[in-house]
Amino acid sequence: MAEINFERWQQVAHFHNPLKDGKLVEHSIEVRLDPLLEHQSVFPLMLKGKASALFPPTDREYLEECAERSKNQCFLCDGIWRKRTPRYSEKILPEGYLEKNDVALFPNLFPLAAYHAVVMVGNKHCRHLDDFPAGMIKDSFSVTLEFIRRCYESDPGVIHFTINANYLFPAGASVMHPHLQILGSPFPGTHERELLERSRDYFKKHGTSYWLDLSATEKLLRERWIGEIDGSQWFTAYSPLGPNEVIAIMPSVHHFLDWGEAEMNGVAEGLAKTLSAYAGLNLSTFNFSCLSAPLNSKSTEFCCILRLINRQNVVPHYRADDYYFQKLLGSELIVSPPEELASFIRQYF
Ligand SMILES: [Zn+2]
Fold first, then answer.
1. Domain, as residue range, for 18
2. How far is the CA of 76 from the centre of ligand 1 (A)?
3. Residue 99 and residue 154 in one domain
4. Does a structural domain hold residue 280?
5. 162-187 pLDDT, tens per residue?
6. pTM of the entire structure?
């Protein structure tokens, strides 16, 4: 194992502050570098303990109102999905769709890739984040992995898959009802390609997997470590890609075709617990992406990972959490230190 080096540096801003009688004040700013991709996350220390200034707590009453208003037009509620969603062809899925308990998978009407499925996650139109049961998440991953297997069997050229989620409109969801989106293509997406290439470079240089080294280092340091469940290991991101990023690594599997019960249990339990912790922080939205090595890959430089972040909370006329800093400069803001976040989420594991 090679130990991961976590790089950071400090800057100081000086100005006369009118809120402090014009006194000259200084503010420290910490910049963190992601050990693999080298993207920067910036932590202005003055924001410590002031997360609510940028992320006002969820307005639960407003959330219920939005749910009530959108429920009538929902094409997933009350079994309407059976009549109003598209079906796959005989070649890919002879049944047209996949179903398991309260979960169903069918094609996205507006695909972004050659294979783009939607998974309806449960029958409930709106859920608070402490109401995503592990069993329901496991069923969602179970139909997803079955779909990926079937796509690959019928079209062996489609080797790049990601499993994704947008929950609620501040996170980009056009449909409130909880759902996943599965993308499958012969080509890797931008972030996926970068991860695969950098992981390959790391493997060539060190002879070990970056992801296993990262996980082992985080476990040793304990600062950002959350815990292990079945086939998954959980910790907060040193240099997050979004607010409150939590990373899960599935150390024994390189791509989605390798997943067994242990990985499905681990991801389902870990997500349910982390989302409950998010609810404990009064957050209401999230995005996640679960990534895999190419399905035909035999190499061990990459293992399946999941990145989870929250987005702006549901409040009327909310302010977007992404601006030039994230969208155009590719940096991220740290509002809550990852070390404190890990210590909070650990209570839920
Ligand atoms: Zn619905």
1. 7-47
2. 5
3. yes
4. yes
5. 999 999 999 999 999 999 999 999 99
6. 0.97
From start to end of the chain, where are the E strands?
Answer: 7-17, 23-33, 40-44, 98-100, 103-107, 115-121, 160-167, 179-185, 225-229, 232-236, 246-250, 286-291, 304-309, 332-333
Q: In what order do the strands lie in the sheet with 23-33?
A: 7-17, 23-33, 40-44, 332-333
Using the mean position of ligand 1's atoms as its centre, give its distance from the Cα of residue 71 in Å: 5
**d(CA 214, ligand 1 centre) in Å:** 39
Let me know whether 223 and 318 are in one domain: yes
The secondary structure of 163-222, three-state, reads EEEEECHHHCCCCCCCEEEEEEECCCCHHHHHHHHHHHHHHHHHCCCHHHHHHHHHHHHC
Per-residue model confidence as pLDDT tens digits over 15-51:
999 999 999 999 999 999 999 999 999 999 988 888 8
Residue 1 is assigned to a structural domain of this protein: no
Q: How far apart are the CA of 210 and the centre of ligand 1, in A? A: 40
